[in-house]
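Narrative summary of target 7.
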Amino acid sequence: MTDDRGPAKKPPMRDVLAEAAFGLFMERGFERTTVDDIVARAGVGRRSFFRYFPSKEDAVFPDHERCLADMTAFLAAADGEGDPVDAVCDAARLVLRMYAENPEFSVQRYRLTREVPGLRTYELSVVRRYERTMAGYLERSWEGTPDAALRAEMIAASVVAAHNNGLRSWLRSGGEGDAGAEVDRALELVRTVWGQAAGGPAAGASDDEVIVMVAPKGAPMWRVVQRIESALGGE
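Modeled conformation, tokenized:
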């Protein structure tokens, strides 16, 4: 009997480099690993590394560019359909799905970023790109309404904070349990406060009143939401 299966398909070079890099980061530490070390383990030249990753930091987060592109496409497809707040909450779940696809890697990366300040700074810049993408979508959805840009920035920041609160809880647990449960609970609070069902901004609305709430830096998301709900309830 002949084996009709062809040779195993080689993984993309980007994945090969990312795997080699992360393996070395875990073994030697991020700072002690050089690009030369990475390409030697991957069996390629330096030029190949920089074709895919501008820096070592980018190799720690190889999946975010794809996820950001997926989010952009998702929101473009949702343009004009339903509640924009629902759309950005659903878009945030794309990021969660990316983390949940490989729990072991996600947990190890989380621990690595806690140990290397430069990686934490890089991660924050990545998160900010997601936030800007969602804010841009919301602002376009509410174009022509009062304070569209302000609303968009505040809600996008709330979605990111809610998503990250649930995600980090899961990562701190070592990737145990349902990654989506905590995130869903947090995002539901955002919908409760900002969604159209809660009296949030609707396309074409012209007389919505804006409530601006100031919270201490680092305040937990549940406290921020509690204060917003209190302000809304007092109207």
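The CA atoms of residues 7 and 159 lie 45 Å apart.
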